[in-house]
Amino acid sequence: MTLSLLFQHIVNALSLGSLYALIAIGYTMVYGILRLINFAHGDVFMLGAYVAFYGITLVSLPWWAALLVSIAFTALFGIGLERVAYKPLRDSPRISIMISAIGASFLLESLAVLIFGGRPKGVPVPDVLSKVIHFGSVSMITISLIIPLFTFALLGVLVWIVNKTKTGMAMRAVSTDIEAARLMAVDVNKVVSFTFGIGSLLAAFGGIMWSFKYPQLNPLMGMMPGLKCFIAAVIGGIGSIGGAVMGGFLLGIIEIMIVAFLPTLSGYRDAFAFILLIVVLLVKPTGLLGKRQAEKV
Amino acid sequence: MKKAVGCMLLVLGIAALIVACGPAAPKTVKFGVFEPLTGANAGGGALEVEGIKLANEMYPTVKVGDKEYKIELVIADNKSDKVEAANAAQRLVDKDKVNVVLGSWGSSLSMAAGPIVKNAKVSAIGLSCTNPLVTKGNEYYFRVCFIDPFQGTVMANYAFKNLNAKKAVIIREVSNDYSVGLAKFFADSFKQLTGDENAILAELNYNTGDTDFSAQLTEVKKFKPDVIFAPGNYTESALIIKQAKELGIKTQFLGGDTWETPEFIDVGKQAVEGVVFSTFFATETPITDTSKVFLDAYRQKYNKEPAAVTALGFDGYLVARDAIQRAGSLDKEKVRAAIAVTKDFPGATGMITLNEDGDAVKSAVIKTIKDGKFTYMATVQPY
């Protein structure tokens, strides 16, 4: 393999990994605060992409406006989803709320098939984002450069919110013990809504970036990215924001390098992601950056 | 008291049910439409359903013996998924008790239904599924299109003779029987034409539903082929070609009939301009009188040009209807026998004669994309 090909592979890996990282952050946020694996995350991701698509095509908004509208809408939607599907089950066993999440996921997918239609749609990608840039013989499109920048910026903002702000303090309190937090006059409902708002906002942003990079929408588009980013979050240590980013990049790099160095195995790319998940769960169940926690009884 | 009322209601309900389902002679002939309407192949499925529905509007009845029956379409979504496909096919033959099955877009999906229609002894007519294994060894599965050994040869010939290509790279959708089969037939034929055992530099794989192909395409860059053959589902293929352009690959892309869906252009946009693929039918060269009838009706109803698979949907319906009329009976075995001897039936896509495997032997058409439209290039005869 020549050096320029290797560089091209590295660029591809980082660009894919940053996208995984972006979506994994949302997963891990919700889990970190509520200990809930939000299986509907991938479908919120799909919804965000569709709303932006209709913003551009039906209402002919400029792409950045469609992006903002979609993010706002999806964040509100996420808050609503939590109210309807998760809040009534907050005191039930954890398994009930997880099943409810799976139900919400199927409901959203089926609704999307009915409302948006089952046929895939092509996304009009703004020219600014799809320009090809060359560095010597290595080439990439602008969106691949923008996504990692945003991933790191959002990582910074989230770490700041969680660690430095009052809301963040409340979030950490809720994550440690909901009842105790309530006794300390933390408005738990507000904190949970805020967390879901942020999680959905991230999913929507990820979905829109995804649809600009891979300009194709279908109602089940959130399934695979949802699973992959769940894996990324687990690898990094679910609940840890930094870990999610790390897991995302790691997954992207492994997926690309498998095809690069073992091209005959390229069909087994997804299988490797899942094998990685199993290995991590067996060897280091808390993930790379996860903290070991005693289960409360 | 409450219990008593409940029991009464239950009894009433059951009675109503029995009355509703009273024995009634079948007044309709049922055509099961077995197509992907959601999921990765939904675009293709929808095109075939368009053709079937159009045919149903134009020829809504069938004469069995001297009785006129209405033809009812029972549409089952196989969800672009092999497991769901088996379920959908089972439902069509068991619950809906259809007389004939039409479809499916996608050879893998049709193959999933193969053993089910065979066990139920219900005849099925594939419309655009081209993998030879769909009909091979299954006397109940037929099709109104050509098969991949021919299609692979057509594209290999095009690569060798028209493009003067000596080396090719293949990108396959490895979870799709259609793609794997067609890639193999192309490779065999291309090696034979070039007389070079190593004419295929590499075969790279991806899975249905993948979106990132940058790693595979970076590999392609290394090989510097004269031509890239990438048969596969339309959205994945469009993304592959788009990402290839982004990586600076200028090599000519060739593909198969699955590319002819509006979604292929919709997703690929500028990037898919100039790609070349084989398909079944071109509106520019109507072949039979039925072609004209079909084209006029379609253009009037939809106000656009039909895709080749839409014409095949139209033909599949007509072949099934014609066979039932010739059989003069709804007996499963008689219908099967009548379909099997279909000879010189004038369909929209040409004269349809089924060979001993139940496959139609027809010419192929080569198309390209020009200014965002599928454009006719040439017709290739099967001999």
From TrEMBL, chain A:
It is found in: Cell membrane. It holds the Pfam family BPD_transp_2. This is Leucine/isoleucine/valine transporter subunit membrane component of ABC superfamily. The chain crosses the membrane at residues 6-27, 39-57, 63-85, 97-118, 138-162, 191-210, 230-259. One of its GO terms (cellular component) is plasma membrane. InterPro entries: ABC_transp_permease, BCAA_transport_permease. Belongs to the binding-protein-dependent transport system permease family. LivHM subfamily. GO terms for biological process: D-alanine transmembrane transport; L-alanine transport; L-isoleucine import across plasma membrane. The keyword Transport applies. The keyword Lipid metabolism does not apply.
From TrEMBL, chain B:
CDD domains: PBP1_ABC_LivK_ligand_binding-like (cd06347). Keywords: Receptor, Signal. Residues 28-372 form the Leucine-binding protein domain. It holds the Pfam family Peripla_BP_6. Residues 1-24 form the signal peptide. It comes from the Bacteria. Belongs to the leucine-binding protein family. PANTHER family: LEUCINE-SPECIFIC-BINDING PROTEIN, PERIPLASMIC BINDING PROTEIN OF ABC TRANSPORTER FOR NATURAL AMINO ACIDS. This is Extracellular ligand-binding receptor. It comes from uncultured spirochete.
